[in-house]
Design a protein that fits this description.
Elements: H1 2-19, E1 27-29, H2 31-40, E2 44-48, H3 52-57, E3 64-65, H4 69-79, E4 85-89, H5 94-107, E5 110-114, H6 117-123
Parallel strand pairs: 1-5, 2-3, 2-4, 4-5
Amino acid sequence: MKQKITFLSLLFLASVMLSAKPEKYPQTITVKKLKQWIDTCKNLKIIDVRGEKAYHLAHIKGAVNASKSKQLFHIVDTTSNKKNIYVIYCKKGEMSMQAGAMLLNKYNVKVYSLKGGFERWLQKGMLVAYD
């Protein structure tokens, strides 16, 4: 009897896992490509998901801060259209992948994560804005 219950539990768990919607993740974008897009793309929205203090010390020009998921969703809710491209960055590129996945799975918009994050932006000698 115990084996039957265990087997049924495993069967149920497997069916749930197989039917679950696979999570989407954003593509990455290089510093060089992002710089090109900043210069040429009118529908580009850059989102900094680092903390507010880090954002105010220095950020990519034109970026808005969304250190909380509620802020991130608000930005997309108020700016969303099919032509927009969202580029998200954090310190190293890990947290922005998670934030991008949240956006893709909730809104199915065009989202990219900056490869190497803000640290890579600085390493490449790109300009920053200050508040």
